[in-house]
Structure prediction request, 357 residues.
Amino acid sequence: MRSIRFLPLLLLLGACAQTPPVPEEAAPLPVKIEKAARVSFQPTLTLLGVVRPSGEAQVVIPVAGRLRYPDRFRAGLSSGVQVRSGEVLARIENQDAEQTLAEDRLRLETASKELARYQRAFDSGVVAAAVLAQYKAEADLAAQRLTAAREKRSSLELRSPVAGWLLVEKRLPAEGEVQAGTVLARVAAGGRPKVEARAAAGDRGRLREGLAVSFAVSGGSAGIAGIAGRGVVREISPLIDAGGTVAVVAEVTEGAALPAPGEGVEVMVELDRREQTLTVPEEALVLSEAGAAVYVDQGGIARRRPVTTGGRAAGRIEVLNGLAPGDKVVVNGASLLSEGARVTQVAEPAGTPGAGR
Prediction:
């Protein structure tokens, strides 16, 4: 009976012993903070483009036949290879042309022998001048036919019409059969090259003719050492394509390090300078399916602010809306935050850019 009386007390004591401890509040996350301020800013818009020649010439296969390449192009023609004017790019073996040449050569040989025989007869006074003239005409006709056959055969040597860069859209294999009218290659030549790029339709209003641009090899550094050339915007299409982009054409003014025509480059357009522009370091931007955002320190609590961004330059990005001057923007550590997280500012060494803002 006594054990039964103490059972509720034992159960109560056991329940108290199993109560989990109250978790301690997480320590504030140390972050770098920068106050948003309006400054003079020249944004840069980066586009992807392709180098195009100012002019080009086509090399077209004149007759059907078997394709052969000279030793230099033994593996076939490739884009970006420089060629000389008149250089043989390929040859076409055409059985009909070879047979015609052989037949015309034989005809001329026969006609020449007959003419020589009748010339001797005429010199001896045996044959009249009218008969000799007939054989001379036949020999001349045979010679003309042979010349035409040789010219046709020489046209089967496909030569570059100008000096320049090869542009090959479809590589034709050696020893393969080709049809008349097939384009063997194009040769880029003449004048300054250009770069054709595409810009989002929403950026068209920020573009205008005359803006300076610089070019960098796609995937390379955008720093000074990575600049492959410079130029100027010459044309902006008024039409928006089905993909929501507009065509932008830039003329190359300095391009000794540009890749060959047909290859890709990054086009960095220097947009008009804007006064009183809010910018933040690029590392302050947090991207997600919901869009771009930054975190703002409000009394030690991180608050997520959706923002609309504009141009970029020198590691900073323009904020068109979503921020106000004086907002304390989290820079380093922003990617680790969530709404409502506690933060504390890290003290920066004196003289550090952005310190004390």
Residues 95-123 form the longest helix (29 residues). The radius of gyration is 40 Å. Confidence is low (pLDDT under 50) at residues 220-225, 350-357. The chain has three domains: 29-41+275-345, 44-93+157-270, 95-155.
